[in-house]
């Protein structure tokens, strides 16, 4: 992984090229006060301080060779991405934000713009030299580096082809983190999985033996601290099962383990911050494949909590593995459960790629999540757990169906299915996230992406730091 810690350091007065952050409304005044003889050069370059514009100009003295103008949307409220374009375009060197402006979370975009992605090219691109940012907020440097590392991990895992990332490799990623974090790992597979977690087993039963399904669990923290559970959907590839997806729908299904990547990254952040919680991480890891062992439309599956589920659609498999995982999490009596899943195409139709559809059984907790998302520039959008749609999951033969009998409200009915497996009186939030960026932006290349991760981390950090 990229060495983000080498790219962001506390400012201890060393020589660095200044970055002047200017927005369009204040730019005329800045030009009068600072440009001097360089005004004509700036105007000739047609720099207007639009967001994403970057201009390198000569420095005011021989000891300061260059300065950089960076256009931002609003100087009073910097986004995490306002320095990303500069980090992508500037030459190797050391930089600092000029004046009284603190980089804050904009340093995150500076780091992620330099994230070296794993590729499978025969001749990998040569990365540009490091662009180091000096921060006037030394207390925040470590946290921002951790955020970059967690985001980078999500991107790397989601980008990895399914042929290179099966359930075993996902398990190894958890074990590698757990070893460094001091967490304990438990993996359930084979007959124990079939008996104890029948829906997880059924979804993964058609895969090759080397890609056998499993439930990966990890625990960390003081048992006397509040217990929280973090769950991530780990479908390493989703063919749709016997309800086979069309080619266009299958192309990106390596990213169907994006929920697991988010959950593991959130666990990493929780441990890095040493939040006073007892963490329980759960990742059901499966491949929804096609073979004679595949579960079928019309099958009725037993779940861990005893409910019988009729299979209306084998392509609605994520909710099945999450159902057994939610039941397992509830057995440990957590006060709070959060799950991440690339669950429904309906969420993308409703909200597009940037906004994770967010559900919660508690208005206060939902408000915390949404407010945190706004504060850290990782927005969420709440959708309702509308009780009136529960009847769409009705089955004539079983306790419920895994897919609604209507094309309407697909994201909501999926969340209502999950709610059946959440223990009573337990705070719960479900994020239906895309985990993918279809169009590149500064600091955010096309490919795997963390969407909702920083919002949830910020909300949990505020909640448990405050209580402790």
UniProtKB/TrEMBL annotation:
Keyword Acyltransferase assigned: no
CDD domains the record matches: Peptidase_M17
Entry superkingdom: Bacteria
InterPro entries documented for this protein: Leucine_aapep/pepB (IPR011356), Macro_dom-like (IPR043472), Peptidase_M17_C (IPR000819), Peptidase_M17_N_1 (IPR048816)
Keyword RNA-binding part of the UniProt annotation: no
Gene3D superfamilies noted in UniProt: Leucine Aminopeptidase, subunit E, domain 1, Zn peptidases
Keywords for this protein: Aminopeptidase, Hydrolase, Manganese, Protease
SUPFAM superfamilies: Zn-dependent exopeptidases
Annotated family: Belongs to the peptidase M17 family.
Protein name: Leucyl aminopeptidase family protein
Native species: Sphingomonas rosea
Taxonomic placement: Bacteria, Pseudomonadati, Pseudomonadota, Alphaproteobacteria, Sphingomonadales
């Amino acid at each position: 992984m990229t060495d983000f810690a080498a790219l962001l350091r506390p400012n201890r007065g060393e020589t660095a090229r200044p970055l002047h952050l200017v927005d369009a409304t204040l730019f005329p005044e800045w030009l009068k006060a600072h440009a001097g003889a360089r005004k004509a050069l700036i105007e000739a370059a047609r720099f207007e301080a639009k967001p994403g514009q970057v201009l390198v100009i000569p420095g005011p003295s021989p000891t300061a060779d260059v300065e950089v103008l960076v256009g931002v949307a609003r100087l009073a409220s910097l986004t995490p991405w306002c320095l990303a374009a500069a980090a992508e375009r500037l030459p190797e060197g050391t930089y600092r934000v000029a004046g009284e402006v603190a980089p804050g979370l904009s340093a995150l975009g500076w780091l992620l713009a330099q994230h070296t992605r794993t590729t499978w090219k025969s001749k990998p691109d040569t990365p540009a030299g490091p662009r180091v940012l000096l921060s006037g907020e030394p207390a925040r440097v470590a946290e921002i580096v951790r955020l970059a590392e967690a985001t980078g991990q999500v991107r790397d895992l989601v980008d990895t082809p399914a042929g290179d990332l099966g359930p075993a490799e996902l398990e190894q990623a958890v074990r590698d983190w757990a070893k460094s974090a001091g967490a304990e790992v438990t993996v359930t597979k084979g007959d124990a999985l079939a008996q104890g977690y029948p829906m997880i087993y059924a979804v993964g039963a058609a895969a090759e033996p080397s890609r056998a399904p499993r439930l990966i669990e990890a625990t960390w923290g003081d048992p006397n601290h509040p217990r929280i559970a973090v769950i991530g959907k780990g479908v390493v590839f989703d063919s749709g099962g016997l309800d086979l997806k069309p080619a266009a729908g299958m192309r990106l299904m390596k990213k169907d383990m994006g929920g697991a990547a988010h959950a593991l990254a959130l666990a990493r952040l929780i441990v890095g911050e040493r939040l006073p919680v007892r963490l329980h991480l759960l990742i059901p890891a499966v491949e929804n494949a096609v073979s004679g062992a595949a579960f079928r439309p019309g099958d009725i599956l037993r779940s861990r909590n005893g409910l019988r589920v009729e299979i209306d659609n084998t392509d609605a498999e994520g909710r099945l593995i999450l159902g057994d995982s939610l039941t397992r999490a509830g057995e440990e009596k957590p006060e709070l459960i959060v799950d991440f899943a690339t669950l429904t195409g309906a969420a993308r139709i409703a909200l597009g790629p940037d906004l994770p559809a967010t559900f919660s059984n508690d208005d206060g907790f939902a408000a915390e999540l949404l407010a945190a998302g706004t504060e850290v520039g990782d927005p969420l959008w709440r959708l309702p757990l509308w009780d009136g749609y529960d009847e769409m999951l009705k089955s004539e033969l079983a306790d419920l169906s895994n897919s609604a009998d209507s094309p309407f409200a697909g994201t909501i009915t999926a969340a209502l299915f999950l709610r059946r497996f959440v223990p009573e009186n337990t705070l719960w939030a479900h994020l239906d996230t895309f985990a993918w960026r279809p169009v590149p932006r500064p600091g955010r290349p096309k490919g795997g992406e963390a969407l909702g991760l920083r919002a949830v981390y910020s909300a949990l950090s505020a909640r448990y730091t405050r209580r402790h």
